[in-house]
Design brief:
Layout lengths: L3 H11 L6 E17 L2 E19 L2 E7 L4 H14 L12 E2 L17 H18 L4 E19 L3 E20 L2 E11 L5 H4 L2 H16 L2 E2 L3 E7 L6 H8 L4 H5 L20 E4 L20 E6 L2 E2 L6 H6 L8 E2 L8 E2 L3 E4 L6 H6 L3 E13 L5 E13 L2 E7 L2 E5 H6 L1 E4 L4 E9 L2 E9 L2 E9 L14
Helix pairs in contact: 1-2, 3-5
């Protein structure tokens, strides 16, 4: 996209008035999106966006400019802008750009940009039909969304690093709405990864659609959730929404350094139960939040954040790492060339334990089993959260009982991690787009089946619901 000689010239211009560090992020992104609603294809769009972001760091300040003009003059003008904004003592820097090698590699079997649009449309239509076929009377609405992105980046910096990378992601989501009388319920399911069109071989459109539609239909018969404090078992298939929101954001170094995290200044301290280990590993294969390099050109790696209950590390980008005189651990991410990098999660999860997931349920006398999480809110400064339960069941005498609806979970992230009693040997992932500072990036999060001693469960029912025992 941009040759090395031009990159050197741009970096030289950016540092003309001083600064500690400069980098250039060049991006070419091709995206396709297909949506269906009301039983027909509503939109098919594709587009290309290209541009570059240029940054100069000087102490704790950042000067950043971006342009979609990749000509020599366009890049030079952006470099001059940041140079004027980043005045300071001139430092030695290295423009002998050397290619940085990744610590991990990924294989793409079927590039989505080589797949005919007709095949993508057919996959969306197949998902729509499969969802409606689950219950032709009660399924009232189906929404299907397909998307793929082919992103090529070049990163160069004044430390002499040079990176070329390509990121290819594919995803499919289905939302189904079911109704019976005055009761309306929604089911949602999605799959996505750092992969090509082969994603839809592992997660077929039919299976994704059927899961979403069945969840919506079954929720119509669910009983109102009881309210009160009770033990909660979170199944592995519920994914890591809680660890991502109630824990992960607080372990991003910028929030910790600004004292906006409940985990600020607690490195080396006990912050969770002995059975809890939290990891972010952007180098995992076939995960939506994976990457070979972060958006500052640092190779992705496995970072243990909490080990056996002890806080061991935070997620750093170059700026936050520099404040502590250490190296970045590969978590500087950005939405696009129009945004500066900030510390972000990739694939965040609670590591599997040794307990049999079925035994965890059997040893729970009574409580709530959560099999799918919904949306929620988190205060990263305090760790307080409220989450919706998209699919939940009562547990009675170690058996899975009736489905309930309208449940919410209220608690405090760090406190929840302290009262985790058992951690299962399984691991279930969910995908999403994580928002922070106006930027969205693809992430995955996961957890095993875990037993939490007690959470506040909000519901619309009264007392404890009764019903037939249902086995997993």
């Amino acid at each position: 996209m941009v040759d090395k000689q031009l990159l050197k010239e741009v970096l030289d211009l950016a540092l003309a008035n001083g600064g500690d560090f400069a980098d250039v992020f060049v991006e070419h992104k091709q995206a396709t999106g297909i949506g269906a609603e009301g039983g027909r294809i509503e939109r098919v769009h594709s587009g290309i966006d290209a541009g570059a972001g240029i940054r100069v760091l000087n102490g704790e300040s950042t000067a950043y400019a971006y342009t979609n003009d990749l000509s020599r003059e366009g890049l030079a003008e952006a470099a001059r802008v940041v140079s004027r904004a980043a005045k300071g003592a001139k430092k030695d820097y290295n423009l002998d750009l050397r290619r940085v090698e990744p610590l991990v590699n990924f294989t793409i079997r079927e590039r989505p940009d080589a797949v005919d649009t007709g095949r993508k449309v057919a996959a969306v239509e197949a998902a729509d039909r499969a969802a409606r076929a689950v219950d032709t009377q009660q399924i009232k609405q189906v929404m299907v969304g397909y998307g793929d992105v082919v992103q090529q980046v070049v990163i160069a910096n004044s430390a002499g690093d040079y990176v070329e990378d390509e990121r290819i992601r594919t995803r499919l989501m289905v939302q189904a709405v079911a109704a019976a009388g005055s009761v309306i319920q929604t089911g949602y399911e999605a799959a996505g990864s750092l992969s090509g069109f082969e994603l839809l071989e592992r997660f077929t459109p039919q299976s994704i659609a059927e899961t979403a539609a069945r969840r919506a239909v079954e929720m119509l018969q669910a009983k109102p959730a009881p309210a009160g404090k009770m033990p909660v078992v979170m199944a592995g298939e519920a994914g890591g929404t809680m660890v991502h929101e109630a824990c992960g954001h607080g372990l991003e170094a910028d929030l910790a350094q600004k004292k906006l995290s409940v985990y600020s200044g607690k490195q080396g301290q006990k912050v969770a139960a002995d059975v809890v280990t939290v990891i972010d590993d952007a180098g995992m294969a076939d995960r939506y939040g994976s990457y070979r390099f972060d958006d500052e050109g640092v190779p992705a790696r496995k970072v243990t954040l909490i080990e056996n209950g002890v806080l061991t590390d935070y997620m750093y980008d170059r700026l936050t790492a520099g404040k502590e005189g250490r190296a970045s651990n590969g978590h500087g991410r950005r939405e696009s060339y129009q945004h500066k990098p900030i510390p972000r999660m990739g694939n965040t999860y609670i590591a599997p334990g040794k307990a049999d997931p079925e035994r965890i349920i059997k040893e729970t006398k009574e409580g709530l089993l959560v099999k799918k999480m919904g949306g929620g809110q988190v205060n990263t400064t305090t760790g307080d959260f409220v989450f919706d339960v998209a699919e939940g069941y009562l547990i009675k005498d170690g058996q899975v009982g009736p489905m309930v609806r309208g449940a919410t979970l209220t608690g405090n992230g760090p406190e929840v991690l302290r009262i985790v009693e058992m951690v299962g040997s399984d691991l279930g992932f969910t995908i999403g787009t994580c928002g922070k500072d106006g930027q969205g990036v693809p992430v995955s999060d996961a957890q095993p089946t875990i037993a939490i001693k007690e959470l506040i469960v909000g519901g619309t029912g009264h007392g404890k619901a009764n019903g037939q025992i249902r086995r997993l």
